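User: Thanks for the earlier help. One more: Phosphoinositide phospholipase C. Can you show the sequence and predicted structure together?

Assistant: Of course, both are below.
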Amino acid sequence: MRKKILKLRQNDVSDDSANEFCVNDDNENDGDNEIDDGNENDTDDDIPTDRRHHLSRTLVQNKTDIGYPDVGVDDYIYENDVKESIENMASFEVPSVFLKQGMLLLKISHKSKKRILFKVDPSNFKFVYKQTSKSKTYEFLVDDIRSIMARENANIYREEFGISKEFERRWITVVFFNHHKNKLKTLNLIADTSRDLKKLLFVIEGFKKLKDNISETLLVNLGDLDEVEKTIVSGKAESTIKQPKKQLSLSDVLKFSKRLNVNVNTDFLEGLYHSVRSDNKTGIDFKEFKNFVKLLKKREDISPIWKSLTKGKEFMYLEDFISFVTEIQGECYDLEKASRIFRRFSSNEDSSAWQEEDWTAFLLSKYSNPLIEEHMDDSYFKHPLNEYYILSSHNTYLIGRQVAGDSSVEGYMKALHKGCRCLEIDIWNNQSDPEAEPIVNHGRTFTNGISLPSVLKAIKKYAFVASPFPVILSLEIHCSNTAQLKVVKLLQEILGDALVQEPINSESTLPNPDKLKYRFLVKVKKSTPFSAIGVDETGKLVSSSTTASFSESNDNFSSKSSLKLRRKSTNNIIDTLSDLGIYVQGTKFRNFSLPESKTFNHCFSLSEKSANSMIKDDGKRNALDKHNRKFLMRVYPSKIRLKSSNFIPMNYWAHGVQMVATNWQTYDLGQQLNESFFAGSYGYVLKPHYLRHALLKSTMRRTDIYGAQKIKFCIDIISAQQLPKPTNSAAINPFIIVEIIGANSVTWDRSSTVGATPIVAGNGHNPCWNSRYAGVAESDHHFMFLRITVHSSTSATTVDDTKEICTLLVKFSSMKQGYRYYPLNDPCGERLLYSTIFMKVNWCTVK
């Protein structure tokens, strides 16, 4: 293989005499390994907006499933090391190179490779970088970091750019949220030496740990004001500081609050400051500062609830706790478990009673997880595949718009980390090199392509991180017969024994997920016509041919848009590739009564337009419901959704469609519903009983009545905690909008709040609403959701020029009763570590 040359312009390197840049490691000789230069335009790479990596050296949340993690502050762990105490972190030192001129690094993107200077602004917990030859700077905050991967843990990124393995030891990828573009961005960097990479990792990880520790404790546990002054208040991070301040001025405290995203108006903070300052002082010492923090942490929303529960008493005793968790929280604790938990959170010496702080700590812990864990006994995953909803992605390779977005392995990584079990791979000829492996992209649009081997390697690596159950690879084949042979070879070589290449038994029925753990299924259209399919004496699937061949897609309508989309490919599928579709054979829908509609392993793929047309027709809708009780179906978004928006998936789940594929790069209502529906499910949700078993002919015309129930609910929106301030806004004035999604009808109580809560002016730290939303909904509780969106108004008194700042969407049947903290997501679907909604939930079905 020929070596790739990196040719950089003279002003892109630190040595003006150099015309080429070669990255050399300490005590290593890399020879002339160099990299091809690309387009000179310096642009960052967009990456999907809703992803969750299993990352090396990054703060992650300890979770018991792939749904909502525990909210408690004691449940955050550092993946490589036990989290250092915040007292030790207070002496964190930044190498001087990051404070002065900045560290020289090579920034890699799809369109360019540029020399940059990377600096640290410790006073604002900020990272700043700029191209060496330009003055424009780019920056991101420590809190914006979503993941850090380095060396071999970042190989997927390095290989996507075609960078030699010899640069592995100097590679780092930082994923952060870009507030200006309202999306996640990736920063791929190569250090000059492995020693430089160690320094860079130390600084990024160190600042992230420090900030996260401080945010958790709000400095209450910091024991040395001098050290705090070094690292936080003064804005300096070098150990050379000799004379730290002994007192903090009002300006210092306001800066500190801003750096920690304590979004409260200045007048309130100034009032707290003066209330703890001694009259004869010009500032506050550390003891007074701790009192300031204690007042700041005081929860006006908690105290009234505590007093109500304890009937005005100072303490809560064990019998009170048992009454609380069983009658209000709806938990099933026996005496032994209740006693053990009570002792764990009691701060009294003899553990005989709780104070208000103990009760608050319990509510923030994993013992108050807001979601019901799905009851999955030994039989849950032992039903045929057609009896499950399967978490599915459309155009998985895209990380932008459908027509002009980028293709990247990142799309597969983020989908798999979210538990996706059906991935789409569009495979085309490599036009630049017909002898090379096929590529994956969106065909004749303005999207770039990625190599099929890179895609398959990423899928193999991350397929079973979030779930052990089978992954379905939905292949859309648009390449030549020669390229198809390469596709087969790559599938076999890369996926190995995990690829299902023959039936696992002699039964003419779909296997269950449990029997297919850690396996890959291929979904591909049949090369030969269908009439009847069975299993021969050797266990191999066989068929006889009676009809013309089919195209997998049923998307027959045309777009009125002036932008011409790619034409439907007419490539025939070779037998060798088609034979890999053991249990999921793509079949063009023609009629539910034809023979191909009865084969146990066929799968119809319908566009949303085709599916909607069937649902509107009584006869077709009944046939659709009947088909999906026994056989597989996939529904995908219309190709005229040029911005990759999503439909409402419940419309198809309600009719038993197993694979409802959404655009994961767009975190709109459709994708929010998709993620919430599958939270904690490992990517497979067993369909309701009434959608899995045959109906009597006498009831076939009334399938819509099955599952409908009356649900009485009462949701008290009490408060929120640590809300992020909108970008480019001087203040935050939050209010909340509550919606019931998926109900046939909602009748609100007369005393209920409807729509939006009042605005809480200038307080994102702990805004309180105490707004009650109560009523009766008629719905199938499997498909009914609570949606809460937090907005900020530019006006403190009226709703004006609002911005959505975070969201919560949760399935009603997953919500536990009682007082619970629910974690919030930002507008891109990323979990906000410390932002929560505190509310009381009650709901039940009524006759």
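User: Great, one quick takeaway?

Assistant: The CA atoms of residues 295 and 552 lie 64 Å apart.
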